[in-house]
Amino acid sequence: MAKxxxxxxxxxxKGRSIDIELNRVVEEAMQKRxxxxxxxxxxxxxxxxxxxxxxxxxxxxxxLYHRIEKDDKNFGRIFLHFRH
Length: 84
Known about the structure:
Blueprint: E1 3-7, H1 15-32, E2 36-40, H2 47-56, H3 59-62, E3 67-70, E4 78-81
Parallel strand pairs: 1-2
Antiparallel strand pairs: 2-4, 3-4
């Protein structure tokens, strides 16, 4: 199974850059028909994870993927599943 990994540690304090990278990775998964995207906002205070989840809940983004899975073993990781 092909997967894309997006680590947001380097751009955690750049709100616009985070949105651009999230858009890019969703588009890439759609174009390459990749079924799983792993997003790593990190553990921290949880604000970055909340930002990522708010982004993914936008109606125009939500219609592109199948489901979100929050890793129950690692708080700082989110899986985005696609059906193609």
